[in-house]
Amino acid sequence: MAGNIEHVTFQHGQAFLAAISERWNYQILREVFFGVRRFGELKRALGISATMLTTRLNDLTEMGLLDKHLYRPDKQWYEYRLTDAAGELVVPALVAITRWAETSASGQSLDARPLLHTACGNQTEPYLACSSCHQPIEAATLEPLATPSD
Hints:
alpha+beta; two-stranded antiparallel sheet
């Protein structure tokens, strides 16, 4: 690695990562991204208790990762959607983790959920790319630089 890289200690970032990496929170965010948005649907898809799901949905809403939308006012039933802020960070992370799990984690290739790039209307396979040369970024081709204060 180039220079002396100091340990990154952003408490807010650490708290956020701890929150989304919690088993149920990650699974809820993943399911909401892939279109499972109502309480009952989430409960069935995840096999989670109603009490735990309620707690996690409230936590994710308070963290600003989910928005709650009333879809049946006579019974106060809600559906959940990712916030714009969650979309900026959570969606790329969820897609990357899900794709990795579908192809690498189990040792067998699973059918990947198709993704549509709405800007061009084509099915896509997202990847991280360099902002300068637009080539895919891989761990072996990425190196942190020393900051000016180092």
